[in-house]
Amino acid sequence: MAYDGESIKRVFSLVSENPIPTTPTLDILSNTLDKCCSDNLIKVYADATTDEFKNDKSTIVKSFSSATTSVTMTLQEYVNGAWTDLVVLATNSLGTFYALGFLPNTVGYTLDWYEVNDYNGVGAYRIKFEAVSFAGTYTTYSDQYCLSLYNPISVNGTVKLEWYLNGTFADATNDERIIDYGTSNLYQQIRLEGIFGKPTSEKAEEFIRYQNGKEVFLKSEQTPEYTLMLKPQTPTILQLLQYQVFQQDSILVTDYNRNNHYSWIQKDVKVTGGFAPEWDWNSLKASVELKLTNANNNFKRRL
């Protein structure tokens, strides 16, 4: 028997996560500790020349739901008490553009502060991310950066750390997630208040001892150790140090302290000790001291 009628067809898209994430909050008293208006600003510097040691770079990466179809990145400047759109970041005009999908569901941009200064001058900046999915538009922001002109006085007392992201890392915001950078070799850099150096060494030697008691030298090896002492940092910076820098097998350190005993320029090192910030319940910030050694150790002698 045949039936006349209509059929209804519905198409559903199944995604593994909420396309518009929500961040839970607690109803607690606002924090009144030693926080000031500049605490959220990451200091960066630029120069009129293209000298790499006088111009900082910042790589900002954001991941989104698999349901995201497009992401627009806009550089914003803080003007007259409000964040104002400056320019859409869709080319390499102010650094290096990483389109959606260069890593799964991820976009990014490496801001070359020389280019930003040349384009618009000094000031406070951030990147606005507007992600579009079937559920609507989701907006999030990068850290905030304070761009100043380079001079030896202003950068005195700072260290610049450089590294490259490859492989998998824990997600600082979600213990259940892993961030996979694959072999992207994504350049990272940050300048922090602190000092690097205080070199020391441990020495190990090997000998052959004969029955008559004579010892014949075979080899010796030194294990150099350096100290990176950082002034109190914000929780955001501490997370970056713990989740990224602490995990690297190679970090380039350049020290800008005029009173340092040695000149350290892109010293290739890796972290060897633990991560133990000096936590204080009366402060939002915490200082931290890291122990490092050579990424390439040739302090060896053998016959």
Describe the structure.
This protein has helices at 113-120, 152-155, 235-243; strands at residues 41-46, 57-63, 70-79, 82-88, 95-103, 106-112, 123-133, 136-141, 144-149, 158-165, 168-171, 174-180, 186-209, 215-233, 251-255, 267-271, 286-294, 300-302. It is mostly beta strands. 7% of the residues lie in helices and 50% in strands. It is globular, with a radius of gyration of 25 Å.
| Rg calc | 25 Å
The helicity comes to under 10%
CATH topology of the largest domain: Immunoglobulin-like
Order of helices and strands: EEEEEEHEEEHEEEEEHEEEE
Structural class by secondary-structure content: mainly beta
Q: What's the number of domains?
A: 2
Could you describe the largest sheet, including whether it forms a barrel?
Answer: 6 strands, mixed
Number of helices: 3
Which stretches are low in confidence, meaning pLDDT under 50 for 5 or more residues running?
Answer: 33-37
Anisotropy-based shape: globular
Oligomer: single chain
- Work out the number of β strands: 18
Quick overview of this protein structure:
The protein has 303 residues and is mostly beta strands.
Write the layout of secondary structure elements.
Blueprint: E1 41-46, E2 57-63, E3 70-79, E4 82-88, E5 95-103, E6 106-112, H1 113-120, E7 123-133, E8 136-141, E9 144-149, H2 152-155, E10 158-165, E11 168-171, E12 174-180, E13 186-209, E14 215-233, H3 235-243, E15 251-255, E16 267-271, E17 286-294, E18 300-302
Parallel strand pairs: 1-9
Antiparallel strand pairs: 2-6, 3-4, 3-7, 5-6, 7-8, 7-9, 10-13, 10-15, 11-12, 13-14, 14-17, 14-18, 15-16, 16-17
